[in-house]
Specification:
heterodimer, A: mainly alpha, two-stranded antiparallel ribbon, 9 helices, 2 strands, 5% strand, globular, B: mainly alpha, 11 helices
């Protein structure tokens, strides 16, 4: 008998009074451990067959990257949480359509990006710098003030990225932060490699314009 | 030589520029300047991390996803979707019409014509059916569809319109009789 199993005396057949049949049911912990050892493909297969715990493991494995994609799009935690949740719900709905031609993570990227593209309103990039960053050059600022300024700078860059046109933003995020190839990004966005490279180029050019003189 | 295109500048960022174009880049100040600016923007973006949520957040997120999925309507198999009254009722009605039509067809004429055709050839109806069955026995549904051997949409409606007034009256009578029988 497996350690930690829940053993239930479920049935004693009348025809063989000398025997006692027991049904061994794995505990919830054992089931989780079992699916936790499966690779992504096997998890998808199990989830398609109705194993909710298998999908829980998929969520557990990929929630961070999906959240990060969403956060990069919207630059705030609440919206990123909502988008992450919606991405996984859509993944659950479409699990049968996952054929394993690409990695599960790539498939989830695609879903997350599409959710973000559908939800996030298109904003034309501003043509002038968002704010002056001259004071960032001041090396005399130390300690807490420096930290504050770093956070302020990060917020400025995030805001600039958020104001990029949607496809440029998606391309920049997937290429810069998730290290996807132009081909993978093209597959996710349903475009060509040439279009992806053009989007990446314009995203960087617009980012430079938005951030003004800041390197 | 022409300056680097946007695609080539991106390739240069990826250190994947073709050697011939790399030679141009090494010698071209404007292209180097443009590449440098793109590289600076890329490095600026790269330096920005996503704030890490609290450790408890991930469990909370998983629970949210689980709850949302639990609220999803249960998926119904496609073939079950056909077993619904809005689908079954029209199909049943159509089947009834076809059955009624079959019942009202003049049987004698058909038999006479069959005899007239079969007698000179000396081939019985069973033999002809066996030949046809032999020929079409291995044809699957897709092949039959592509060969145009299936009933076209609306064919039953057209057949109904071609009935004579007497045949329509008889059809109405049969349908009413069938409905009365079903109610009882």
């Amino acid at each position: 008998m497996t350690h930690g199993s829940a053993v239930r005396d479920a049935w004693t057949p009348a025809v063989s009074p000398g025997w006692k049949v027991t049904v061994v049911t794995p505990t919830e912990t054992e089931t989780t451990i079992a699916v936790g050892t499966l690779d992504d493909g096997a998890l998808v297969a199990a989830a398609v067959e109705g194993r909710r715990d298998a999908f829980d493991v998929i969520v557990e494995r990929h929630r961070r990257i999906v959240y990060q994609v969403c956060f990069r799009f919207v630059s705030n935690h609440e919206d990123a949480s909502d988008l992450t949740q919606e991405s996984f719900v859509r993944a659950w709905r479409g699990l049968r359509t996952f054929k394993g031609h690409s990695a599960l993570s790539t498939w989830l990227y695609r879903i997350a990006v599409n959710v973000c593209l559908n939800r996030v309103s298109a904003k034309a990039p501003a043509t002038e710098p968002i704010e002056s960053t001259d004071r960032l050059e001041d090396t005399r600022i130390e300690g807490a003030q420096a930290t504050l300024l770093r956070e302020e700078r990060a917020a400025t860059v995030r805001k600039a990225i958020t104001s990029l046109p949607k496809k440029q933003r998606a391309t920049l995020i997937l290429r810069t932060y998730h290290d996807l190839s132009h081909q993978q990004i093209a597959d996710i966005l349903g475009s060509s490699v040439g279009a992806t490279k053009a989007n990446f180029f314009h995203a960087l050019a617009n980012l430079k314009k938005l951030l003004g003189n800041e390197p | 030589m022409t300056h680097l295109t946007s695609d080539e500048l991106v390739d240069a960022l990826d250190i994947a520029l073709e050697p011939s174009r790399q030679i141009h880049l090494d010698a071209c100040q404007p292209c180097q300047q443009q590449l440098s600016e793109l590289d600076a923007a890329l490095n600026t973006a790269r330096g920005i991390a996503v704030p890490e949520p609290s450790p408890l957040y991930w469990q909370h997120l998983s629970a949210r996803v689980r709850t949302a999925i639990d609220a999803e309507p249960v998926a119904v198999d496609r073939w079950r979707q056909w077993l619904r009254w809005p689908v079954l009722a029209p199909i049943g009605g159509l089947a009834l019409i076809v059955m009624a039509l079959a019942a009202t067809l003049p049987q004698e004429t058909t038999v006479d014509r069959e005899i007239a055709v079969s007698e000179p050839l000396g081939v019985s109806l069973d033999d002809r059916f066996a030949i046809v069955a032999d020929l079409v026995g291995d044809i699957d549904w897709d092949t039959a569809v592509s060969a145009g051997l299936t009933v076209a949409p609306g064919a039953a409606d057209l057949a109904l319109l071609e009935l004579t007034a007497t045949e329509q009256q008889e059809l109405t009578r049969l349908l009413q009789a069938e409905l009365t029988r079903a109610k009882s």
